[in-house]
Design brief:
Length: 100
């Protein structure tokens, strides 16, 4: 899904959930849009995932599109360091609700 399509979807009044996805050790943020049973990544003009270098940039992009609320999803690497059993098929995620 491209940025223009996201804006159009929001203007149409469709119900969606925006997620900002990152890994604990990276400073790269991607945006995933959930619409019903479908999941879409926000893409650039080359049809590659749109990557932001900071959380603020990702939040500003969502705000410009008209998204009022998003969830930050942080993949927690190194589960064994904090005493959890490593689960590679279902990784541990930190889900943090936030306003866009």
């Amino acid at each position: 899904m491209k940025f223009k399509e996201l804006k159009k979807l929001i203007r149409s009044g469709a119900e969606l959930e925006a997620e900002i996805v990152t890994h604990a050790t990276h400073s790269q943020y991607g945006i995933r849009i959930q619409t019903g049973d479908e999941s879409h990544r926000l893409l650039n003009w080359r049809n590659r995932p749109l990557i932001f270098r900071s959380l603020d940039q990702a939040r500003q992009a969502l705000a410009q599109a008209g998204v009022k609320q998003a969830t930050l999803i942080q993949h927690v690497a190194h589960d064994e360091v904090i005493g959890r059993v490593a689960t590679y098929d279902e990784p541990h995620l930190a889900r943090i609700p936030m306003s866009a």
